[in-house]
Amino acid sequence: MKVLGSCSAEETYDIARKLGEGAKEGDVVALTGDLGTGKTVFAKGFAAGLGVKEHVSSPTYTIVQQYDDGRLPLYHFDVYRIGDISEMDETGYDDCITGDGVTLIEWADMISDILPDSAIRVDIEKDITQGTDYRRITIDDEHTGD
């Protein structure tokens, strides 16, 4: 487990970019954090690390967005609007997490029951005692042997 500090959106982006650079086919990144903590900034950085050149935005209303212009396909989920976990069947979730790309899921805690055990868990928390822009980013990838 790694705990990193970020004092800006740029630092959060860079932390995520480095994680994306090391991503492998089949990786699932389960991203959690309160509203406004920087999950979408993290997703953009992660995508950049994969070499995605397209504009990356949170797929809140479409649930999933696929990016194919990086070194691996990226399946970017935002499950904030999922009312029931069974709705994930309609999104192609199973095909994505078992496919030839990398899956990143914002609000992953909402579907924790169906996340693979091997998921890389990333939690972003505000810590106002360190400043209004400070974020504590916890990356749990111990299961991968890293």
Question: Can you offer a commentary on this structure?
Answer:
- 38% of the residues are buried.
- A seven-stranded mixed sheet has the order 1-7-6-2-5-4-3, covered by helices on one side.
- 20% of the residues lie in helices and 26% in strands.
- The chain is built from three helices and seven strands.
- The radius of gyration is 14 Å and the shape is globular.
- It is α/β, with parallel strands linked by helices and 146 residues long.
- It has a single domain (2-144), classed as Rossmann fold, CATH 3.40.50.
- Helix 1 crosses helix 2.
- The termini are close together.
- The mean pLDDT is 93.
- Helix 3 links the parallel strand 4 (74-78) and strand 5 (102-106).
- The protein has helices spanning 9-21, 39-49, 93-97, and strands spanning 2-6, 28-33, 64-67, 74-78, 102-106, 120-126, 135-140.
Keywords:
alpha/beta; about 150 residues; seven-stranded mixed beta sheet; 7 strands; single chain
Give the helices and strands, then pairings.
Elements: E1 2-6, H1 9-21, E2 28-33, H2 39-49, E3 64-67, E4 74-78, H3 93-97, E5 102-106, E6 120-126, E7 135-140
Parallel strand pairs: 2-5, 2-6, 4-5
Antiparallel strand pairs: 1-7, 3-4, 6-7
Helix pairs in contact: 1-2
Estimated radius of gyration: 14 Å
The CATH class, by name, is Alpha Beta
- Helical fraction equals 10-25%
CATH architecture: 3-Layer(aba) Sandwich
Largest sheet: 7 strands, mixed
Based on DSSP secondary structure assignment, what is the total number of beta strands?
A: 7
Runs with pLDDT <50, length 5+?
Answer: none
Strand order of the largest sheet: 1-7-6-2-5-4-3
Order of helices and strands: EHEHEEHEEE
Termini gap: 9 Å
Task: Give the helix tally.
Answer: 3
At the fourth level of CATH, the homologous superfamily is P-loop containing nucleotide triphosphate hydrolases
Mean pLDDT: 93
Structural classification: alpha/beta
Number of domains: 1
Strand proportion: 25-35%
Principal-axis shape equals globular
